[in-house]
Amino acid sequence: MKPETAYSQSFKIKGGDFKNAGTVSILIKKILKEIGLSQDIIYRIAICSYEAEMNTIMYAERANVELVITPQEIKMIFEDEGRGIEDIEKAMKEGYSTATNEMREMGFGAGMGLPNIKKNSDEFRIESEISKGTKLYIKVNLN
């Protein structure tokens, strides 16, 4: 752990595991509550982590999530092995979705995941390579 890092933890997500959907987000939220962060910060991180987790479950085979908390910020990196995002600009538009009918029947695929992450983070970047996977960088400032 770097000297400026107050806390760091990794999590694994299995693609297609709708039964355990939200588990990682709940663990992250619990950690933030234990640290004593404000409800506003916890709310924003919970939205970002849940949306990213659901995208992994829906579209990737697996992912590693890295949570890093410093006195200044919270960073989450979701790095998945999956099909990748063909058109990031299009994927960032509210309402755009490539969800299957099955996913929609379960209540997912409204096309708000990535826009919600962007809206609730202070910094958000996506790197994606077709047939390899996607990496999301999410940062929320604590000031």
Describe what is shown at a glance.
This protein is α+β, with helices and mostly antiparallel strands and about 140 residues long.
How does this model look, in words?
With 143 residues, the chain is an alpha+beta fold. The chain has one domain: Heat Shock Protein 90. Helices cover 36% and strands 31% of the residues. The protein contains 5 helices and 5 strands. It has a 5-stranded antiparallel sheet, covered by helices on one side. β2 and β3 form a beta hairpin. The longest helix has 21 residues. The chain is globular, with a radius of gyration of 15 Å. The mean pLDDT is 94.
What is the strand and helix layout of this fold?
Elements: E1 7-14, H1 23-35, H2 39-59, E2 60-69, E3 73-82, H3 88-91, H4 101-105, H5 113-120, E4 123-129, E5 133-141
Antiparallel strand pairs: 1-2, 2-3, 3-5, 4-5
